[in-house]
Write a structure and sequence with these properties.
Blueprint (H helix, E strand, L loop, with lengths): L1 E8 L2 E4 L13 E6 L1 H6 L2 H8 L4 E6 L3 E3 L2 E3 L3 E7 L4 E8 L6 H10 L6 E8 L6 H9 L7 E6 L11 E3 L7 E8 L3 E8 L3 E13 L2 E5 L2 E2 H9 L15 E4 L7 E3 L1 E5 L4 E4 L8 E6 L2 H17 L7 E7 H7 L3 H11 L5 E7 L1 E5 L6 E4 L3 E8 L2
Parallel strand pairs: 3-4, 9-10, 22-23
Antiparallel strand pairs: 1-2, 1-7, 3-7, 4-11, 5-6, 5-23, 8-12, 9-12, 10-24, 13-26, 14-15, 14-21, 15-16, 15-20, 17-18, 17-21, 19-20, 22-26, 24-25
Length: 380
């Protein structure tokens, strides 16, 4: 397996010096992460197809691009990959062709032949797709032997339109899967948040998919404002700084849910993933140092599952973390690089949701506010 890393800014290509000697004609898979402004300014797919003529090309819009240990804004980061003994197959579905995201997720996985399929890397529209339903649909179709990771496309801090492309110009509503076949590819995964919980644990007593109305029989928004105190005056912008820890029925470890919007008239909060009735929730707040430590933890978790040094690590972190860390955002990427001993190429993006199992051998989950890492190495 070989990997080469590139960035494209101000109309200029730059290849990272740590890239392996990979011929661009030989690249079989290109993962490209670009800001919406870059996608609107340049004919990105045409540029990539000319440069990597034989590759499957996947493009995702972002809320920030990761180019090794740099975090770019309004740029483009891509990794080109070649494999010695692994077959790569891509599939896509469009949300408009299905009545809901669950059906789209099911259809995406069913498009793959299951024999010798070991991993599916998913890049989904982040505006029109319900990530929780997408994951439920995929999990209903995959076996436990097939690892599913990935993320939801971003649109900076605008939350307007996200774009995903497969061997064509990016568009809204597309969900792309990259299937890896064979037993030579080692894929590790890790996902951690680093947020602090505070306040009492409460039960969700009224919700509708990703809209929360009541906790412990009380108005959810009023409880949320009470816990935020003075910070409540900064809503809805402050909502990204105070997500919820959610314990889903049947799952012991909590997952993090980002608040996308609030409705003062209805007293409700809309999240970036479902919050079912019966779930237990606690409020959370940011801790700068713990966010960085969690990024290290995710890298350690993904590295431990593989016996050899990863050639490439895909980093998908959340827009909420970037908004909190601000000028310190690169610290979490540098922390990951430290765990990998500065010998693994890093690329990825800031997203509207991360896809990964919580633990090895479990089903995929939608996460918010995490650093989620997928590592790749091909054994001989």
């Amino acid at each position: 397996m070989k990997a080469a890393l590139y960035k494209f800014q101000s109309g200029q290509w730059q290849r990272h010096p740590q890239s392996q000697p990979l011929s661009e004609d030989a690249a079989r898979l290109v993962l490209c992460f670009a800001s919406r402004s870059a996608l609107e300014t340049y004919p990105i797919y045409s540029l990539l197809h000319t440069r990597f003529p034989h590759a499957e090309i996947v493009i995702s819009s972002t809320a920030g691009e990761i180019y090794h240990t740099e975090v770019l804004d309004d740029g483009l980061s891509l990794v080109a990959l070649d494999f010695d003994a692994t077959e790569v197959v891509t599939q896509s579905v469009h949300i408009s062709n299905y009545s809901n995201s669950y059906e789209a997720g099911t259809a995406l996985i069913q498009a793959f032949a299951m024999e010798k399929l070991s991993h599916v890397l998913v890049f989904s529209d982040g505006s029109h797709v319900n990530g929780s339903e997408l994951v439920r649909g995929m999990n209903a179709t995959t076996s436990q032997s097939v690892l599913v990771t990935g993320g939801l496309a971003g649109d900076g801090n605008r939350f307007e339109s996200t774009f995903v492309g497969l061997n064509g110009h990016p568009e809204q509503g597309l969900i792309v899967g990259v299937g890896f076949y064979g037993d030579k590819l080692q894929v590790g995964h890790g996902s951690q948040g680093g947020w602090e919980t505070f306040g009492l644990e409460r039960m969700v007593t009224r919700s509708d998919r990703n809209v929360l109305f009541e906790m412990d029989g009380k108005n959810a928004l009023e409880l949320y404002k009470r816990y935020l105190g003075m910070e409540a005056e900064s809503l809805p912008g402050a909502a990204l700084l105070f997500p919820l820890a959610v314990k889903l029925p049947g799952i012991t470890a909590p997952i993090v849910r980002t608040i996308l919007s609030i409705d003062s008239d209805k007293g409700s909060m809309t999240f970036a993933g479902d919050i079912p009735e019966g779930a237990s929730v606690r409020f959370m707040r940011a801790n700068f140092d713990k966010l960085t430590i969690a990024a290290s933890g995710a890298a350690t978790q993904s590295f431990r599952q593989g016996s050899q040094q990863p050639v490439f690590a895909l980093l998908i972190s959340c827009i909420g973390r970037k908004m909190i860390l601000k000028s310190r955002t690169e610290e979490e990427v540098e922390a990951v690089d430290e765990i990998f001993g500065h010998r693994t190429l890093l690329s990825g993006f800031y997203s509207y949701g991360e896809l990964s199992p919580l633990l090895d051998g479990t089903s995929c989950q939608l996460h918010n506010q995490t650093m989620t890492i997928t590592t790749f190495h091909e054994v001989e």
